[in-house]
């Protein structure tokens, strides 16, 4: 198995960041307009709903794509990498969900959970280790 390196994974994350940001803006705009037309224009409510929507959008995008037959997000597909379990098999939605929310812990500890990818033998971040996953070249 050929493990995907740090910079390849960073590039995939940048692509996914652009995709989720654009998707978030479009969905957020439509959702905001529906809320305003429905009579809610309180900025705190709109911001809170926007934050919740952003969390759900990110989770669904990553968990669905990584547990799909493509085994990766659009960014990962563009870079020719995929997410597998420790034996190289496709992961399920639950494992993909655990991996996604594990990224929060990787980020909260000063991004060390992500930086670990550059230094571990199997190029795993903390979130990969927590979920029992690998990111490999296709």
UniProtKB/TrEMBL annotation:
This is RDD family protein. Residues 3-132 form the RDD domain. Keywords: Cell membrane, Membrane, Transmembrane, Transmembrane helix. The chain crosses the membrane at residues 12-37, 44-64, 101-120. It is a multi-pass membrane protein. GO terms for cellular component: plasma membrane. It is found in: Cell membrane. PANTHER family: MEMBRANE PROTEIN, PROLINE-RICH ANTIGEN HOMOLOG-RELATED. It comes from Candidatus Thiopontia autotrophica. It holds the Pfam family RDD.
